[in-house]
C-alpha cells in the first residue's frame, strides 16, 4: 500500500483595506483584510462617524494598497506596500482623520 503524502496547502492572499469617505454610500465589511489595514480603516470610519459615510472595499482592492478618497480627491494613497507595512504603521491616523474632515 502506498501512503498518501499531504502536500502543503497554499494560503490565499488576503486583500488590503481600501477606505473611501463618501456622503452617499453605506458601509460594508472589511472582513477579508489584514488586521493592519482593518484597524486603520476602522479608525477612519470611527473618526468620521456622523460626518460622512465610510465605504470600506467598495470594489475589490489591490493587494498592498491603503487608499482614502473623498469624492475624487485622494487623501492617502499608499500602494505597493510590502510586509511588514512600515509606511502604513508609521501613519498617524489622527492626522489622517483631521485631513479627511478638512477636505469634506
Describe what this molecule looks like in 3D.
The chain is of the alpha+beta class and 104 residues long. It has helices spanning 35-47, 86-90, 93-103, and strands spanning 19-22, 53-56, 66-70, 73-78. The protein starts with 18 loop residues before the first strand and ends with a helix. The chain has a 4-stranded mixed sheet, with helices on one face. Helices cover 28% and strands 18% of the residues. The protein has 3 helices and 4 strands.
Strand content: 15-25%
Spans where pLDDT lies below 50 across 5 or more residues: 7-19, 22-31
Q: Give the oligomeric state.
A: single chain
Structural class: alpha+beta
Mean pLDDT: 75
Succession of helices and strands? EHEEEHH
Number of strands: 4
Instruction: Give the spatial strand order of the biggest sheet.
Output: 2-1-3-4
Biased composition (Basic residues): 1-13
Region (Disordered): 1-33
Protein name: Selenoprotein H
GO cellular component, one term: Golgi apparatus
Amino acid at each position: 500500500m502506498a501512503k498518501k503524502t499531504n502536500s502543503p496547502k497554499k494560503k490565499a492572499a488576503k486583500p488590503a483595506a481600501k477606505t473611501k469617505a463618501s456622503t452617499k454610500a453605506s458601509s460594508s465589511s472589511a472582513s477579508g483584510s489584514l488586521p493592519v489595514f482593518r484597524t486603520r480603516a476602522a479608525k477612519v470610519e470611527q473618526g468620521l462617524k456622523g460626518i460622512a459615510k465610510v465605504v470600506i472595499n467598495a470594489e475589490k482592492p489591490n493587494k498592498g494598497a491603503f487608499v482614502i478618497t473623498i469624492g475624487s480627491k485622494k487623501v492617502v494613497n499608499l500602494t505597493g506596500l510590502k510586509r511588514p507595512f512600515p509606511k502604513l504603521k508609521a501613519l498617524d491616523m489622527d492626522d489622517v482623520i483631521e485631513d479627511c474632515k478638512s477636505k469634506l
